[in-house]
């Protein structure tokens, strides 16, 4: 009896949180209501925002409901040993916030114009020793810098780890390696390519835990996007070596830089099929490119404005 009563309640009020599934949070300042969507009644259990501090939109939500994972986005090459990131994370830990994981630099092998942090391995290594090593001592799990999906990623990481080890060992015979717990990757192409990208890293570092911290099937049709979405989700959830994943698409179609059909929201801020599936809910049938959109609203305002002027002149 109890079970029969409880079941509909569960179905009506909540979906099970998926511990691997996270959010790449890209705040929408024009439509702050979009920001509130993700943690509510959702399978998404954690998020990152490319910053060391949590987003104001989620300030009231506990770590156990929606865990914040801080990131040091890049490194100031003129001041690589700046410890702002460490201090910001320690402040959260000291204040009782249960920070369990942190992320290294965003696309250090990519240039600024494509969103990379354009950081040399030896510069990144200096920053790592100052900002990340002390967090490992406090039990926080460290994610290596997330390189682009390009060929430069592996050489960058090898050099980074070598440089880091040199700094930590400080010329002593007893070589030490820098600490890290998992390896984030980014991927915007097909599933076959994603798997081979991941397997290449599993061969280099046997037993490695992979986090896919940015992915989508960029600039593809809605059918291709949805098939890719389903296949990758199943692969991530079923593979023990995948520790976390965050789809890149939690924004409206019109602002997407990875194609108009990959997004979780249409131009009115309504959940698309993939957006709803990602949250653990059922299809909505909402076309990503549907909705009026901001640019259309702006041009309407201009049209109405000039019509008003015409009317005024006529009168
Ligand atoms: C912090 O969160 C982790 C993962 O959810 C949990 O295992 C751990 O017990 C928590 N620690 C504290 C002090 O609450
Ligand atoms: C970093 O690594 C590269 C390649 O292994 C090496 O040439 C360079 O000397 C290293 N730099 C530092 C500061 O350790
Ligand atoms: C350091 O890392 C290198 C490369 O992965 C590995 O060959 C070596 O055994 C490691 N050394 C220590 C002391 O763990
Ligand atoms: C994707 O999965 C959903 C269920 O989660 C299903 O309804 C849909 O038909 C699938 N689409 C494709 C293209 O596999």
From TrEMBL:
InterPro entries: ASL1, Asl1_glyco_hydro_catalytic, GH
Single biological process term from Gene Ontology: fungal-type cell wall polysaccharide metabolic process
Domain Asl1-like glycosyl hydrolase catalytic: 24-278
Gene3D superfamilies: Glycosidases
Any one Gene Ontology cellular component term annotated for this protein: fungal-type cell wall
Signal peptide: 1-17
Superkingdom field: Eukaryota
Swiss-Prot/TrEMBL keywords: Signal
Keyword set includes Signal: yes
Protein name, as recorded: Asl1-like glycosyl hydrolase catalytic domain-containing protein
